[in-house]
Structures are given as structure tokens and as C-alpha cells.
Amino acid sequence: MPHYDSGVHKVALVTGGAMGIGAAISERLAADGLMVLVADINHDAAAATAAKINAAGGMAAPLQMDVSNAAAIAQAFTTIEKDYGRCDVLVNNAGIAKMCSFLDVQLDGWMQILTTNLTSVMLCGQHAARLMLRNQWGRIINISSVSGLRAGTGRTAYGTSKAAVIGLTKQMAIELAEHGITVNSVAPGPVDTPLTQAMHSAETRVSFTNGIPMKRYGTPAEIAAAVAFLAAPDASFITGHVVPVDGGFIAAGVLAV
Ligand code: NAD
Fold first, then answer.
1. Quick one: which atom of ligand 1 is closest to the CA of 19?
2. Quick check: CB of 159 below 6 Å from ligand 1?
């Protein structure tokens, strides 16, 4: 278990923390000793995840937040400042995906994905960093995707949003470094969650699995473990990087002799 300062309860905010990868991250950070704010557009699901964490002996609370709405983000951070006075770890995890071929991409669909997956990372990052400045310590982890590192069919908006999250991570990292705030990205390969259960066809599953040397999808807990490492005090000199957690997908080329 990482050694966070004893005596002070560091506060972690996990967007999209109610389900899937975000829920696993919330559970893991709470198990590591952080007070976790489970921020989600789905308040009932966030409350259920927070209750599960509290029942297991951790500390968590739900927080209503729609990351596609700048005013809602500002409101949520006003609540955090009033109720907790700090935000030490921010995990920008909330994201949506809709597959669409390049020639069929419509402006409203493009904007919806860019707003939810990219603009939210900039806005939440700004609000959180302003609170982190007070203690000259902070950890920001942006969840991107292997789709931000390699192209995939139908992923014009999604893949571009995730590539931009990786670029934004580097921009944030170099400007926040002098304040003791690290900014890194975790790029998951395919993981079984409500999102992929709804979105990945049988063909997509075969295509992904064949391209992954470990021949399987990842688990939410495996993504959470990488996030927990980057959030911990031990990761103090790591900033501006992207860490694929992908069973070898990014490393792979030809997989047959
Ligand atoms: P999911 O759909 O299973 O869960 C997403 C969570 O985010 C849900 O709790 C949902 O209510 C919440 N959410 C959605 N829109 C929101 C909004 N506007 N404001 C606040 N909360 C919102 O998704 P997941 O598979 O757990 O993915 C989590 C993140 O990981 C996403 O950024 C996704 O792009 C990324 N990712 C997932 C995979 C995968 O295979 N599952 C792979 C690579 C990257």
C-alpha cells in the first residue's frame, strides 16, 4: 500500500467513477487510503459505488457531475472546495464512444465526443490544479486509450479525442511540474465494461484479441493498478507520459511466423 501522508486524508476525484474502469479506480484508490469522490452523471450508480467502498472500510462519497457541461463541472468543484477544501488526485476517466465511419461523421456527434472526452479533461484539470497549487502537490491521471495511439475503424472522433488527451497530458505536465503536480495518461487496451459490452461486436472482439499478444481483454482492476501507481507518492518523478495497459497490443506487429 502506498505511503500517503498520515494525518491528512488526501482527496481523490474520479470522473465517471460509478461504473466500469472508473468504479475499479475508485475502489482501488480508496483501498490505498484516499478519500474518493465518485463523480458521475449517473448519481444513483455513483451512490451505489460509494456505498460499496464505505461498506468495505474505505472512504467515499458520490458527487453529481456531467463532464460535458462546463457549468456543472464548475459547480461540482465549488462543492469540493466548500466540503473538502482540497483535491489531491484527479482521475479524468469519464468518456463516451460511438463508432462511425469517417465519411459519415456528423458535426454534432464529433462535438459530443470531443466535449465529453477532451474538453472535460482540460476543464477538470484546471479546476483541480488550482486546488492542488495550494499544497504544491497533486496527481492528475488522464484515461486515454490505445485508440489514441493507433487508428481503428470507425474511431475518427473517439480515437482523435484520445490522441488529443495524450497531447493535452503533455501540455499540462510541463506547465504544472514546477508546482509539484504530475500529469500522466493511462491508455487501456480493450477492457470488459458496460461500454465495451454495448459497443464491441463479435468481430471487434476477435480482431482485438488476435492483435493482443496476451490474447485477452484486460480487467478494470488491471487499469486501476496502473492509475494507483501513478497517483502514489512513489511516482513523484514521472510526468508527461502515457502508459499503455494493453497486453502488448501497442508493441505488436506481425504475430505469426
Ligand atoms: P463505461 O461506459 O463502462 O463507464 C463510464 C462511466 O462514465 C459511467 O459510470 C458513466 O455514467 C460515466 N459517464 C458517462 N458520461 C459522463 C459524463 N458526461 N459525465 C460524467 N460521467 C459520465 O466506460 P469504461 O469502459 O469504464 O471507460 C472508462 C474510460 O476508459 C473512458 O474514458 C473510455 O474511453 C476509456 N477506455 C475504455 C476502454 C474499454 O475497453 N472499456 C478502453 C480504452 C479506454
1. 9
2. no
Burial of 210 (0-12, 13-18, 19+ CB in 10 A): exposed
User: pLDDT digit string (tens) for 175-190?
Assistant: 999 999 999 999 999 9
Q: At what angle do helices 156-176 and 120-133 cross, to 10 degrees?
A: 20
- Please tell me whether the overall predicted TM-score, pTM, comes out greater than 0.90 for this model: yes
Torsions phi, psi of 202, nearest 5? Answer: -60, -40
Question: Burial level of 114, CB count in 10 A (0-12/13-18/19+)?
Answer: middle
Catalytic annotation on 158? yes
- Identify the bridge partners of residue 169 per DSSP, sorted by sequence position: none
Residue 61's SS3 state is strand
Radius of gyration of the CA atoms of the chain, in A: 18
**Ligand 1 binding pocket includes 121 (Cβ within 6 Å):** no
